[in-house]
């Protein structure tokens, strides 16, 4: 499906540049005969950065955040979403998040913002930062019961069997603390061999 998106965007771009009718309308715009602004092309190309399954996951995330279902993420949506996670963000924090977008946050802008972030960010850091949202004391650990609850009740929900499978290989100490820093390292670099320990 991603190839289809890419072909459509490339075809539209090529047709735009070679079609005489399009060239004519571009000439009219240059002369000031029309006031319609051409949309920025950078946001449409964001779909080429992700495969179809990633786009679907981002769409699900967008819909989770867009609490009022108006097609845009606003400050109230962010507040409600964070409140559902047990957070109580300040207005300044929410304003800071909203100011990262150059305009209204529809799905295309949402994808664009993620694309920009992911291109310039270490994936290990992104994963670790996702876990830190649930580690209020910044210990590097999340209790396995709390993590199980999060994984089975939020977002793309895991089954108990899937969580059990994850925990079999996960770095969990005798007190039931899931070491997400080590888990992130394992995801990025692989598990240490027993010979290395």
Tell me briefly what this model is.
The chain is mostly helical and 197 residues long. 60% of the residues lie in helices and 3% in strands.
Structure, described:
60% of the residues lie in helices and 3% in strands. It has eleven helices and two strands, in the order ααααααααβααβα. It has helices spanning 2-18, 20-30, 41-44, 52-65, 75-84, 91-99, 107-119, 123-132, 144-153, 160-169, 180-189, and strands at 141-143, 177-179. The protein has a two-stranded antiparallel sheet with strand order 1-2. Helix 8 (123-132) packs antiparallel against helix 11 (180-189). GO terms for molecular function: calcium ion binding.
Please identify, by name, the CATH architecture of the largest domain: Orthogonal Bundle
CATH topology of the largest domain: Recoverin, domain 1
Q: Class of the largest domain in CATH?
A: Mainly Alpha
Number of alpha- plus pi-helical segments: 11
Helical residues, percent: 55-70%
Give the strand line-up of the largest sheet.
Answer: 1-2
Query: What Rg is obtained from the alpha carbons, in whole angstroms?
Result: 22 Å
Q: What class do helices, strands and sheet pairing give?
A: mainly alpha
- Can you tell me the residue ranges where pLDDT is under 50 for at least 5 consecutive residues? 1-44
Q: Assess the beta-strand content as a share of residues.
A: under 5%
């Amino acid at each position: 499906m991603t190839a289809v998106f890419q072909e459509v965007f490339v075809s539209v771009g090529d047709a735009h540049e070679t079609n005489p009718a399009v060239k004519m309308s571009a000439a009219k715009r240059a002369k000031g005969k029309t006031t319609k602004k051409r949309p920025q092309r950078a946001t449409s190309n964001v779909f080429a950065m992700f495969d179809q399954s990633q786009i679907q996951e981002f769409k699900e995330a967008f819909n989770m955040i867009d609490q009022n279902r108006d097609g845009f993420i606003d400050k109230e949506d962010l507040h409600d979403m964070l409140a559902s996670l047990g957070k109580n963000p300040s207005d300044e924090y929410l304003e800071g998040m909203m100011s990262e977008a150059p305009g209204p946050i529809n799905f295309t802008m949402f994808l664009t913002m993620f694309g920009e972030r992911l291109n310039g960010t270490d994936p290990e850091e992104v994963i670790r930062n996702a876990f830190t949202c649930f580690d209020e004391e910044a210990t590097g650990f999340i209790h396995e019961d709390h993590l199980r609850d999060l994984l089975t009740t939020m977002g793309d929900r895991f089954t108990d069997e899937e969580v059990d499978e994850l925990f079999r290989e996960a770095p969990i100490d005798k007190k039931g603390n899931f070491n997400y820093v080590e888990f992130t390292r394992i995801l990025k670099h692989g598990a240490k061999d027993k010979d290395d320990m």
